[in-house]
Design a protein that fits this description.
The complex is a heterodimer of chains A (486) and B (616). Chain A is α/β, with parallel strands linked by helices. Chain A has helices at 6-15, 24-39, 53-65, 81-97, 102-108, 135-141, 165-177, 209-217, 221-229, 234-241, 264-271, 293-298, 308-317, 342-358, 371-382, 396-399, 424-427, 430-435, 449-458, 468-477; strands at 41-46, 72-78, 109-112, 127-131, 147-154, 187-192, 248-251, 254-260, 276-280, 321-325, 364-368, 391-395, 404-410, 439-447, 481-485. In chain A, strands 3-4-2-5-6-1-7 form a 7-stranded parallel β-sheet, sandwiched between helices. In chain A, helix 15 links the parallel strand 11 (364-368) and strand 12 (391-395). In chain A, helix 6 crosses helix 7 and helix 11 packs antiparallel against helix 20 (468-477). The longest helix of chain A is centred in the first third of the chain and has 17 residues, at 81-97. With 616 residues, chain B is α+β, with helices and mostly antiparallel strands. Chain B has helices at residues 4-13, 20-33, 40-48, 51-60, 68-90, 98-118, 128-150, 208-224, 230-238, 242-247, 254-264, 294-319, 322-325, 330-336, 364-371, 378-407, 410-418, 485-489, 547-562, 579-598, 606-615, and strands at 160-163, 167-169, 174-176, 180-183, 190-196, 267-273, 424-429, 434-439, 445-451, 454-464, 466-468, 476-482, 498-504, 516-520, 527-529, 535-541, 567-573. In chain B, the strands form 4 sheets. Chain B has a 7-stranded mixed β-sheet with strand order 8-7-9-10-17-13-14, with helices on both faces. Chain B has a 4-stranded mixed β-sheet with strand order 1-4-5-6, with helices on both faces. A 4-stranded antiparallel β-sheet of chain B has the order 11-12-16-15, with no helix packed on it. In chain B, helix 5 (68-90) packs across helix 6 and helix 8 (208-224) crosses helix 12. Chain B is globular and about 70 Å long. The mean pLDDT of chain B is 89. The chains are: A alpha/beta (486), B alpha+beta (616). Chains A and B meet through helix 6, helix 7, helix 8 and helix 15 of A and helix 16, strand 15, helix 20 and helix 21 of B.
Chain lengths: 486, 616
């Protein structure tokens, strides 16, 4: 596991500067966050996939950097080390561009998490970046501070308390010892997306903080009932209540990652078609290459020849979505409820290997809901000749906060069971959203959306998932999807 | 397994004694179905101070704030001692003098500083104060060893030092990390050492909590040595049996008793602090002891032993969701366990445990809050739901270890080692305390855990042929075994992050969770078939924050290899348990939100805002 240090991160930025790609909409969101920090209260920013959550945060930190008093500190807190890294890199890059000196950055920034060399606490600290479980370090870093602003990036596994783990006990301790004046414990900004926040819990009552806050605004029982039936209605209903609440709220409605029109696969089911892609597939370039036949003979690929034409077709005609429809799917009985699906694993690995040969420099990621699947595919990739720096297999959980040029989404358990508990998409439909929203150029899906749509339509509170069929129909009409039955 | 002490308490207090057998059976099945056992430091608080105080800390994450500086020094002393005690006792020596101790500490200091630098802590230093404390403590231990040598318990200063290992015992419901255990090579005698860097009282003698703690660790060590029932374990620790102590009267020769008991002790508990202080074993005097008080010293030790045992049982019941484990309704369970006072028996304090002294208690407010039956708000309900969630997660984390103990008996490990190509699926039915096995199709062993017909957990384990160092990298664990036929075809027998345990097969009695172990994060990237596809290697780089435990682990691997011991290398999937931290987070978050009600200052603060959204 790499261990990042603040010095290392700064050196790295100097070598590979990170370009800023902020848009008008980000500045609108930033002004809301800054208002919250300046005047207190709670801010909620909804950031669907690729909408620039980290960009927004880093811009807000940049704007506030020179405004903060000596006794004031902003804590950026999130669930994943990888998100901390992303946020600190973007923020430091912005600070450097705006002319803040290297030494000053080192003195005023602290970072904590298991990926990081812990920063020595300093009185000059202005910004703290941390994952949870770091409360002792945060406690030390809060010495001498009496105004604390908290920014929570709620991506996954977050329950009410978890984003607060470092700050809550640190702040409590400070209050007890009298070091923080509670009146000045000032603001909370949460950035996230309830449609992507994945909870790893069996308790249906435990909800992510961002969802609890939005739902807390909604007082009418009728509206509460609607949200239970149609969770995707929450954004529309929330906006109705905003004028009567002092919650500061913003919805980042453009995705800068997904090429249009592939965003409709998530926009239609999860966001009532409110999410729009900024880039068109026409502007996307994929470096292509002729894949050598020798390689396939040597590696004894079994299934690939079935689908090679479909892949080539998509690459040649710039079609962003390839859908390999798995027809051999039967409702589960007790004894075949396995998470490992050999056929899908073999397809995914062979396709990834093929694409790594047929393209130049593109980063390819296989995403599956199950650890066992991801591990087995990783093992298969280990044992064939493929550039491991360009091809990887991840679980949905570990793919949060990351993206890739080409994503192979391997669906899992489209049917569900009742006796043995619901399967993944019917415990957390957000998982499907994450899986279908990590690609920058091309998405390949292995699975069966018909089964998802049919199963979801029978379950209370999951009907929105069946809208995925509408999205497929729409893509079909425009000839922007390649469908192949396997 | 229910202790005779709790059994006694149960039968005496049941409101319906005619249902005693049923209650006993039900309680036994509750204990065998749960893995939510308490941490030893909380058990000792229950045994020596206050069961409510310990429940608040263990179950509710309540914190009593301590000085960070004291904690930091204590941690450094422990780390320094962990390295120097290995160095001091690994070689056999006729004598140990002060220079040797000092030399040892200096070497350990350098090594420790190096380890911290590798782990990214650039400014870590061991200062003079830490070194001085470590030296005093080691000297204290050497003094005890000299006495033992004088009494013929040991012939030289050579031991197998077990340093800060994670031990779980699900029968005795205890789990914790003993500071140091020195095992005599023949496994017939051990000294269990508890270092005290701050809490020893003014006279320099251990307080009740220290004593309870080292007795609890001694129970684990006794189990490691293969001693199994409550009476024999006590006899191993004190040197006299429970019956003997109960029949002692004033006419005995106290010197004779001390000599005899020390002669019979198999696991000697000692507490060593800055000012000395070796009780709890009655052969060590305390300043407050009256002359001729030997019999009472033995009785007090027995009393404390009983309190540790029932304290662990009491806390286990507080952590367990009793109603979820059994096929009885809530009302039925309450009826069966109804005590004479009307409350269910599992909420009552067993004999010997007493409420602490409230006026000075740091946790008085939360105690009042959590143990009184006031009206519960919406916020309280949210907190309760999260708490249950954390308890579930904790149980699942511990279940891995519990089930491994149930499945992997000595014979089972031998069987798996004999035919490494064959893998099994084990079905563990917790509520029936039963293990079924069938041959599996996957190239790895799988354990499925069921309770009341519902599958709780599935995880994998593997037994490796060897463990070697990777010559090309410093901090690496390399496990290897023969590649299985399925693996050669393309499907791997892969593990997720796991506990790797070195199980000493020379002993009759094998408890995997009382073995030397380390936790490593494995992923499929770590699995490599060698060129001719005969062997499977698992090469795991060690996470920098585990370097210190890795250094110690490496020593044990070397030790076993040099002594040519028959060791089974077991790796089983497990989770790194962070639930106590999560509990603390919930405790403070909701504590803060609740403060909003009582304090005007919070209006206009972020908490006040947040409470408006969450609380109403």
């Amino acid at each position: 596991m790499p261990l990042y240090s603040l010095d290392g991160i700064i050196e790295d930025i100097k070598k590979n500067p990170i370009p800023t790609t902020a848009h008008k909409i980000h500045y609108k969101a930033v002004s809301k966050i800054i208002n919250t920090i300046n005047y207190g209260g709670t801010n909620v920013t909804i950031g669907p996939p690729g909408s620039g959550k980290t960009t927004t945060i880093s811009l807000a930190l940049l704007k506030m950097y020179n405004e903060l008093d000596r006794e004031e500190v902003i804590i950026y807190e999130t669930t994943h080390n990888i998100l901390v890294l992303e946020a600190i890199r973007k923020t430091i890059a912005q600070l450097m561009i705006s002319g803040v000196g290297e030494e000053e950055i080192k003195e005023t920034t602290a970072v904590y998490g298991s990926y990081f060399v812990p920063t020595e606490p300093s009185e000059k600290t202005k910004l703290i970046f941390t994952t949870f479980y770091q409360h002792k370090r945060v406690e030390e870093a809060l010495r001498g501070k009496d105004r604390v602003h908290l920014i929570v990036d709620e991506a996954s596994t977050a329950k009410t308390s978890q984003p607060f783990l470092p700050t809550s006990s640190a702040i409590n301790n400070r209050i007890i010892t009298g070091n923080i004046d509670p009146r000045l414990f000032s603001s909370l900004s949460i950035i996230g997306d309830p449609m992507q926040t994945i909870l790893f819990t069996n308790q249906e009552k435990v909800k992510p903080l961002i969802l609890q806050i939005i739902e807390g605004m909604i007082k009418n029982p009728q509206d509460k009932k609607i949200i239970e039936e149609e969770p995707d209605a929450i954004f529309e209903i929330a906006e109705k209540y905003l004028p009567y609440s002092n919650l500061s709220y913003f919805f980042l409605e453009n995705t800068f990652r997904l090429p249009s029109p592939s965003e409709i696969l998530i926009s239609i089911p999860f966001y009532r078609n409110k999410l729009k892609a900024f880039r068109s597939i026409k502007d996307v370039k994929i470096g292509s290459n002729d894949a050598s036949l020798d390689w396939f003979v040597k590696n004894k690929t079994k299934l690939l020849r079935n689908v090679r034409d479909a892949l080539d077709n998509a690459l040649d005609s710039k079609i962003p979505v390839v859908y390999l429809k798995d027809l051999n799917l039967k409702p589960y009985r007790d004894n075949n409820l396995r998470t490992y699906d050999e056929k899908r694993a073999t397809y995914a690995v062979e396709i990834a290997a093929y694409l790594s040969k047929a393209t130049i420099g593109e980063h390819i990621m296989i995403i599956t809901p199950y650890k066992e699947m991801a591990d087995q595919m990783g093992f298969m990739l280990n044992n064939i000749e493929v550039d491991k720096r360009r091809v990887e297999a991840r679980t949905i959980h570990s793919s949060l906060g990351t993206d890739a040029d080409i994503v192979i989404a391997v669906l899992g358990k489209e049917y569900t069971t009742i006796e043995r508990g619901k399967t993944i998409y019917y415990i957390m439909p957000q998982a499907l959203n994450v899986q279908l929203s990590r690609h920058k150029k091309m998405l390949i899906v292995i699975g069966n959306f018909d089964v998802i749509a049919e199963t979801a339509s029978k379950l209370r509170g999951y009907k929105f998932l069946s809208k995925i069929q509408d999205a497929i129909e729409e893509l079909k009409e425009d000839d922007l999807i390649v469908i192949k039955e396997v | 397994m229910i202790s005779p002490f709790y059994k006694d308490f149960l039968f005496r207090n049941l409101a319906n004694p005619e249902r005693g057998k049923e209650a006993y059976k039900l309680l036994d099945s509750i204990f065998s179905s749960t893995s939510n056992i308490p941490i030893i430091s909380y058990v000792t608080l229950a045994a020596s101070f206050c069961p409510y105080y310990s429940t608040l800390q263990q179950k509710y994450g309540a914190m009593s704030f301590r000085n960070l500086k004291t904690i930091e020094i204590g941690n450094k002393v422990h780390e320094l001692l962990s390295l120097s005690s290995i160095k001091l006792f690994e070689t056999s020596r006729p004598s140990i003098n002060e220079n040797l101790i000092l030399d040892n500490i200096n070497k350990a200091k350098e090594e420790l500083e190096k380890i911290h630098r590798v782990a990214g802590d650039k400014n870590f230093t061991v200062d003079k104060e830490v070194k001085e404390i470590a030296k005093t403590l080691l000297k204290g231990l050497i003094n005890v060893s000299r006495q033992l040598k004088g009494q013929g318990k040991i012939s030289d200063y050579s031991f197998f030092p077990i340093v800060e290992q994670n031990f779980h015992d699900f029968d005795y419901k205890l789990y914790g990390i003993p500071d140091l255990i020195l095992e005599r090579e023949d496994k017939e005698f051990a000294v269990v050492v508890e270092w005290k860097t701050h809490s020893i009282n003014d006279e320099g003698y251990p307080d009740e909590t220290d004593k309870a703690q080292v007795i609890a660790y001694s129970i684990l060590e006794a189990r490691r040595l293969g001693i199994n029932d409550y009476d024999s374990i006590f006899e191993a620790i004190s040197g006299l049996s429970i019956n003997e102590i109960e029949s002692l009267d004033g006419n005995v020769n106290e010197y004779e008793i001390l000599r005899e008991s020390l002669g019979r002790v198999k696991v000697l508990p000692v507490v060593i602090g800055k000012k000395g202080g070796h009780p709890p074993h009655p052969s060590f005097y305390e300043k407050t002891d009256k002359k001729g008080d030997v019999i009472n010293r033995f009785r007090r030790m027995l009393d404390l032993y009983k309190r540790v045992i029932v304290g662990a049982e009491y806390l286990t019941l507080q952590l367990t969701k009793i109603y979820k484990l059994q096929n009885y309704s809530i009302d039925e369970i309450k009826e069966i366990f109804k005590s004479k006072s009307g409350k269910p028996i599992y909420y009552l304090m067993p004999d010997g445990l007493k409420k602490g002294f409230c006026p000075n208690c740091l946790l008085r407010d939360p105690c009042y809050y959590y143990f009184s039956h006031g009206n519960k708000s919406n916020l309280d309900e949210k907190e309760r739901v999260e708490r249950l969630e954390i308890l579930d997660k904790r149980e699942e984390n511990l279940l891995h270890h519990k089930v491994i103990d149930m499945v992997l008996t000595r014979d089972e490990i031998e069987k798996l080692r004999k035919d490494p190509d064959k893998c099994y699926v084990y079905k563990v039915i917790l509520d029936k305390n039963r293990v079924e096995e069938e041959s599996g199709k996957d190239p790895i062993n799988i354990i499925k855990v069921y309770r009341r017909g519902k599958e709780l957990l599935t995880f994998k384990f593997d037994i490796f042929k060897g463990i070697v160092e990777n010559p090309s990298a410093e901090a690496n664990i390399v496990l290897y075994r023969k590649a299985r036929s399925e693996e050669v075809k393309g499907k791997g027998g892969l593990l997720k992050s796991s506990t790797v345990a070195l199980i000493d097969m020379s002993k009759e009695n094998v408890i995997p969770t009382l073995s030397i172990s380390i936790y490593i994060s494995i992923s499929s990237d770590n699995y490599k078939l060698n060129k001719n596809r005969e062997n499977m290697y698992v090469v795991v780089p060690v996470n920098p924050s585990f370097y210190l435990s890795f250094k110690r682990f490496k020593y044990y691997v070397k030790y076993y290899q040099e002594k040519k011991k028959d060791i089974a290398i077991l790796a089983y999937e497990s989770a790194y348990d962070l639930t106590s931290l999560e509990n603390k987070g919930v405790f403070t978050t909701y504590g803060l939100l609740r403060k909003v009600d009582s304090n005007d200052d919070f209006k206009g603060s972020m908490l006040w805002n947040l409470k408006r959204y969450l609380g109403e």
